[in-house]
Structure formats: C-alpha cells, structure tokens
Amino acid sequence: MFNESKKAMTAISQYCGNRVDYVQGGGGNTSYKFNDKLMAIKASGYTLADVQPEQGYVTVDYSKISRKYDEISKKMDIDVEAETLLINLDCVELLHGMKDLRPSVEVGFHSYLQKAVIHTHSVYSNLLCCSDEGRDNAKSIFENSKYGYIYIPFISPGYTLSIRVKDEVIAYKAENGKMPDLIFMESHGMIASNDDYETAIEIHETANQMMIDYFNSVEFPKAIIKKTSKGFSSKTEMINKFIVDFSADENYFDTVNIYPDQIVYLQNNLGKTILIDKDNASIEYIMSEKQAQTLEEVLLGVVYIITEIKRNELSLKLLCKEGEDFIRNWESEKYRASLVND
Ligand SMILES: [Zn+2]
C-alpha cells in the first residue's frame, strides 16, 4: 500500500540526503503526506540518505498532532517540551512491517505544511539565516521571484517553532491566497514545500541556486578525513585554513555558536574527542570513522558559513543566549546526539 507515496518520500529524501552542503550529520528532515491522516516523516537518529521505501521514516497521524499541539496552548503549568515529546510518540501510526522509530523532533511544523516538505540546513540558506542582513537579503533575492516566502526569527525548536510556523503560514495564506513556497528560519535553515513532490525538489534546488548566485558562493568542498594512529584527522583544506585564519581552537567552536546543530554535535566532544591544534592547523578525532566523518561535515558546514559571511562582508549573527541554553538542556537533542554514536 501507499507505494507511490513511499516513492515520493524516498525521492525527496534521496535528493538532498547525500548533499553535505544541504544537510550535515543527521540534520534536516523530509515528510510526505499519504492522505489526510497519515504522514511519513524522517525518523530521529536516521539521516536523509537512510530513507528508502521501507526504512528510515515513521508514519504519524498528523491531524492528531496538530489537534494535540493546539490543546497544549490551553493547558497551564505543564512541561511543554515533555508533553510535546509524548504527543509525537503517541501519534505514531505504524505501517505494517515498519520499525517503531521516533519521529523527527521537527515533526510539528511538517504537520502544518503542504504534502511534500523538504527541510534542510542548507549552507547557502544559512548565509541568510546566520547573518544580521538576512531578512534584507532574502527580500532582494526572492521578493520579485516566482516564489513566496516567509522569514522567521529564531525560535527554540520543537513546540514553539511549530506553532510559530503554523501562525506565519496562516497569516501568509490570508494575505496572499496561497501557501508560501519557502520558509527561512533564523539561525537554523530553510523549508521548501509543495503538494507535488517533484515541484518541492525544484523549489528547493532553484532557491539554493538563487542564493549561490547572489552571494557568489565558493564551491562547497568535500569533507575529507584520514586515518591516524589515534583516530582520524581533518584533511579538508577549508577547515585547516579556517583554524589558522580565525585562530579557532576548541573554545572558539564552543562559544561562536551559529545554530543548534553545532551545539548538539560538538558540545560533548570538543576538547575530549575532538582535539584542535591551531598552531599546526590540525584537528584530531578520537572516535570511529563514521562519527569522525559526521563531525567533520558538521564542522565544515559551520566553517563554510562563517567564511562566506565574512567574505561577503556581512555580520555574523550568533545564536541568542536563550536559544543556546535551551539546546544545551534539550532532552530530544540529547537523544539525537546519542544516536550519532551508533
Ligand atoms: Zn532543522
């Protein structure tokens, strides 16, 4: 059953799953609505490249999610994030033969959007979303294009972000008579959505090309690691150069935080299993090859964005203090970070 829908879910996930410039580590997620009740969403702890017709995602009752999220706002004195997590798990409606996995923590906002939703942490979109000039530049790029868009300030992920996306989409639709094609989320990334999955892919791809052209972006390098006696070392020239140019040590990457994934992936590793020697421009990863490759990609995303923002003479927008504290203490993210170690 649902073979066409499973094919669509696989297509949108595979489209961006192997693009490190679009998704780094387990970041980013996709969803596809099978009907007016069931929605496939990437499973937490899986990468987009893992998604196949029968794996890497879970199906949820998204009508129930939006109904339950609406009820939360009426309740007093509850732990909203704990409640949200319970709802997300409670709304899983497993298809026959599928593994019982946990839906992505971003399942909430997917519920309010079109049939096919592609959410990435595209480094080009983050040249907008991680700079003070982002909103103005988004206007310059997209205002007179065929794509309608929304630009959302930083909101802590999970319940609060879901409700904000819902409210913004309703307001946009009331004003424009249609759903937005694109959503940019400050200190986070972008969303492309459409009822037709191939169109959703086209919107995501074209929008990224428009941003690449606008910022005259340099080519995104390949993340390369090499085996050493202790683990693996970074061989990506852009990262090695960055460490020297920005005098970037462990403390730098722990304090210059541009978005949640940087904290999620790096916070428990810096100075312990990620050792940076800025004088010799080297990074050593004391971990498995898979983990080292993941962290090299996460680091490359951060390094690319900061380098390109400086080169374009924009000002880097750091994650706000409240956002940083929220992420450092967020249970769902701890779960996701623990799955990196699989
Ligand atoms: Zn995200």
Percentage of β-strand residues: 5-15%
Give the N-terminus to C-terminus distance in angstroms. Answer: 31 Å
How many E strands? 11
Q: Work out the oligomeric state of the chains in this entry.
A: single chain
Task: List SSEs in N-to-C order.
Answer: HEEEHHHEHHEHEEHEEHHHEEHHH
Major beta sheet, specifics? 7 strands, mixed
Low-confidence stretches: none
Shape category: globular
Give the overall pLDDT as a whole number: 94
The helix content, as a percent range, equals 40-55%
Return Rg in Å.
Answer: 19 Å
* Small molecules in complex: zinc ion
- At the first level of CATH, what is the class of the largest domain? Alpha Beta
Q: How many separate structural domains? A: 2
What's the total helix number?
A: 14
CATH topology of the largest domain: L-fuculose-1-phosphate Aldolase
Question: SSE layout and pairings?
Answer:
Elements (H helix, E strand, L loop, with lengths): L2 H15 L11 E5 L4 E5 L14 E5 H11 L7 H11 L16 H5 L4 E5 L4 H5 L4 H9 L6 E4 L6 H18 L5 E4 L3 E6 L2 H19 L9 E3 L4 E3 L2 H9 L4 H6 L4 H7 L7 E4 L4 E4 L3 H23 L9 H8 L2 H10 L2
Parallel strand pairs: 5-6
Antiparallel strand pairs: 1-2, 1-4, 2-3, 4-7, 6-7, 8-9, 9-11, 10-11
Bound molecules: zinc ion.
The site of zinc ion has 6 residues, from loops.
